[in-house]
Amino acid sequence: MPPIKNPEVRGSPMPPEAETSSSAFLSVERRGAVALLHLARPEKRNALNDALITALGAFFAAPPEGVRVAIVAGHGAHFSAGLDLSDITEKDATAGMFHSRLWHRAFRQIAEGTLPVIAVLHGAVIGGGLELASACHVRVAERSAYYALPEGQRGIFVGGGGSVRLPRLIGLSRMTDMMLTGRVFSAEEGQTIGLSNYLVEDGAGLALALDLAAKVAANAPLTNFAVLHALPRIAEADREGGFLAETLMAGISVADQEAKARLHAFLEGRAAKIAP
Fold first, then answer.
1. Does residue 142 have an active-site annotation?
2. How far is CA 210 from CA 136, 213, 225, 252, in A?
3. Rounded distance, CA 130 to CA 86, Å?
4. Which one of 33, 168, 174, 264 is separated from 161 by 20 to 30 angstroms, measured CA to CA?
5. Above 60 in pLDDT, residue 15?
């Protein structure tokens, strides 16, 4: 299919062409080293059904060669209003458990896969949509974003890994409050409690995400691997185990040939210094 022209990003190494593909519920656009994924059910507020979850899992299980960062966003007015309830209305307990495990597998491919993933959040970020956002590594929120976990009011429980990931972001007491009372957090409140890393004006989220993705893609691959896979385990390890894992990862990274080249470039004045 014909490329989309001139998707230029400030400070990005991306070429001036983009490739696109799509499935029934997920559109994928390739911009150099960055893959831009859009949830594509705007008429359903991007409610997550089995087909969309399966498509997400399949993409992150085998990303295209050369892609180094992914961005997940939503078409239309919302990121995602959560689980498509029609998927579970008639399920028995066994089918419900397998359904949850489908989500776990897909979101684990995001959280523990090979790509750093940036989420762009706007409008509803509710239920399963918030679980999806929490599986991503960096979250950019627009001021229209709002967050809720209405499972308690629906008579169900989170099933996409939210009970594991969200307390680590916002604390157990806040998640308990959201589920028991139906409390809704605004974009500003979400930024304060840790649901987002960045807060921008409406319509500015994707531009910032692309800028961040360009920076992430420019990192050494081994460093990105360490941040995605070693850092979370070190953070949850016991103190001495964490120190040992850090030591091992530090030793491996120093021996990497790309690290050596980057260090020499800095010492020889060929690499930019950090500035405020």
1. no
2. 15, 5, 20, 30
3. 19
4. 33
5. no
Q: 17: helix, coil or strand? A: strand
The pTM score is 0.89
Of all residues in the chain, the percent with pLDDT exceeding 70 is 92
- 221-267 folds as Lyase 2-enoyl-coa Hydratase; Chain  A, domain 2 (1.10.12)
Token pair belonging to 93: 């307990």
Residue 2 pLDDT class (50, 70, 90 cuts): very low
Q: Based on the residue annotation, tell me whether 151 is a catalytic residue of this protein.
A: yes
Tell me the one-letter amino acid at 63: P
Catalytic member of 19, 90, 142, 151? 151
Q: Which of 8, 19, 90, 131 is catalytic?
A: 131
Closest CA to 183 of 205, 152, 155, 160: 152
